[in-house]
């Protein structure tokens, strides 16, 4: 009889694009959205941890795990540059989590509304760096979102929803609306923005339903009052570890050379894909979830090595490290961590070449028709809220058969140590498509 703890990673990203009429630029600024309290589940139990009953593992659960990196020699360049820019700009020892896929998806939607052969369209098209044409962009997202849907039906782990909310006097172009529905699984809903409270309540109710109560407040009435459209995207990920952690304890986490804190750790020894990269000066470990998603943890050699890692890590080097990973026996010690993060991407995107959607010269004719707003719409803000909760939910006793497999290359049987007791970088990858769903860094697991 083997006793195991079920460990869940709960991640949520919400993205909000705020549109204003470019003829009245002064009305486009909106206040920073305050991260709502209680969006993500919060642990209320204290150490020592007491076992609680868990539902049985489904009999059809497939525990065979074979990892082959997504076919490419690098991650898509825009997602990588976006992530690296955010990590480098966050100079404080602060936890960060963003969803590059969410940003990339809404920029693809905006490219559908951009005027043909305009600077706006060219800048947006450049964000889809791994896709050659507009038709290919549409097919890429149609297939990707369908893949996510099928995966969610099997494992109930990943939900991606997009919706364009417009003021009731706005008429969207029919071709644009049809394109959103067919290729991007997105909808358009008209609300009376003059009643800002009621409109905000309707949008928040939708977000609450999509995220199963994790996100109760996506917008506030001021967001609605200053806008003519709100383009929203929600990604909710709830992953069950494929290999569950058996032990928990409290120990020291070294935030810096002079600062440490007591945190809850999870521990297990099993076979994982792992690589020790002298080039990156870091260890890299793959922790697979049930389904097609995995978390990759990059652990610097040095106690304060995260700053160097964030600034020197290159796209092709990381992909090369993934290709070099081998399945070996690893003793994994990982802290539970739980935090929220909010980012305004306007300046970040402008630094990456996406500028005109924020200017009065923005060309987004596909969004609207009618004399009042046609040719007068621009994006005023792109806001993202994200959160992650990596924890274990209890203990279950069940019968299990363990098959010992030797190192497939017949090498050493040494157990590698992967002790995450210092700041680290992580990302969640959907391995069938290569999309980076979430990524960030952790300086303080208990923040």
From TrEMBL:
The keyword Repressor does not apply. It is found in: Secreted. One of its GO terms (molecular function) is serine-type endopeptidase inhibitor activity. Keywords: Glycoprotein, Protease inhibitor, Secreted, Serine protease inhibitor, Signal. GO terms for cellular component: extracellular space. Residues 1-27 form the signal peptide. Its main location: secreted. It comes from the Eukaryota. CDD domains: serpinK_insect_SRPN2-like. InterPro entries: Serpin_CS (IPR023795), Serpin_dom (IPR023796), Serpin_fam (IPR000215), Serpin_sf (IPR036186), Serpin_sf_1 (IPR042178), Serpin_sf_2 (IPR042185). Pfam families: Serpin. SMART domains: SERPIN. Residues 80-445 form the Serpin domain. Belongs to the serpin family. This is Blast:Serpin B3. It comes from Drosophila guanche (Fruit fly).
């Amino acid at each position: 009889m083997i006793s195991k703890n079920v460990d869940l990673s709960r991640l949520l990203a919400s993205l909000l694009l705020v549109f204003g009429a470019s003829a009245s630029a002064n009305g486009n600024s909106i206040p920073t959205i305050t991260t709502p309290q209680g969006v993500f589940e919060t642990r209320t139990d204290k150490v020592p941890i007491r076992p609680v009953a868990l539902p049985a593992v489904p009999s059809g659960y497939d525990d065979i795990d074979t990892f082959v990196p997504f076919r490419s020699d690098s991650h898509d360049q825009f997602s990588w540059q976006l992530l690296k820019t955010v990590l480098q700009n966050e100079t404080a020892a602060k936890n960060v989590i963003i969803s590059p896929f969410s940003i990339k998806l809404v920029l693809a939607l905006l490219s559908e509304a951009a005027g043909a052969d305009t600077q706006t369209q060219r800048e947006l098209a450049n964000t889809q760096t791994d896709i050659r044409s507009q038709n290919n962009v549409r097919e890429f997202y149609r297939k990707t979102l369908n893949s996510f849907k099928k995966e969610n039906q099997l494992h109930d782990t990943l939900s991606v929803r997009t919706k364009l909310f417009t003021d009731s006097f706005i008429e969207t172009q029919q071709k644009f609306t049809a394109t959103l529905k067919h290729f991007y699984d997105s909808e358009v809903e008209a609300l009376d923005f003059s009643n800002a409270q009621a409109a905000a309540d309707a949008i928040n109710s939708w977000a609450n339903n999509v995220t199963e109560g994790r996100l109760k407040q996506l917008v506030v009435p001021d967001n609605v009052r200053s806008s003519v459209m709100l383009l929203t995207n929600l990604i909710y990920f709830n992953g069950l570890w494929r290999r569950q952690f058996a032990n928990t304890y409290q120990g020291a986490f070294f935030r810096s050379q002079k600062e440490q804190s007591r945190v809850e750790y999870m521990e297990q020894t099993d076979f994982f894909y792992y690589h020790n990269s002298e080039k990156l000066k870091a260890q890299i470990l793959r922790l697979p979830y049930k389904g097609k998603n995995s978390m990759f943890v990059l652990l610097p050699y040095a106690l304060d090595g995260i700053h160097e890692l964030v600034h020197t890590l290159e796209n092709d080097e990381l992909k090369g490290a993934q290709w070099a990973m081998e399945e070996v026996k690893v003793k994994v010690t990982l802290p539970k961590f739980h935090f929220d993060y909010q980012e305004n991407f306007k300046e970040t995107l402008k630094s990456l070449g996406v500028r005109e959607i924020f200017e009065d010269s923005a060309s987004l004719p596909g969004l609207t028709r009618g004399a009042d707003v046609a040719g007068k719409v621009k994006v005023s803000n792109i806001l993202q809220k994200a959160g992650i909760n990596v924890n274990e939910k209890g203990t279950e006793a069940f019968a299990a058969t363990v098959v010992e497999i030797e190192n497939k290359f017949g090498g050493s049987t040494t157990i590698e140590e992967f002790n995450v007791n210092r700041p680290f970088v992580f990302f969640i990858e959907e391995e069938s498509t290569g999309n980076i769903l979430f990524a960030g860094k952790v300086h303080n697991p208990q923040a």
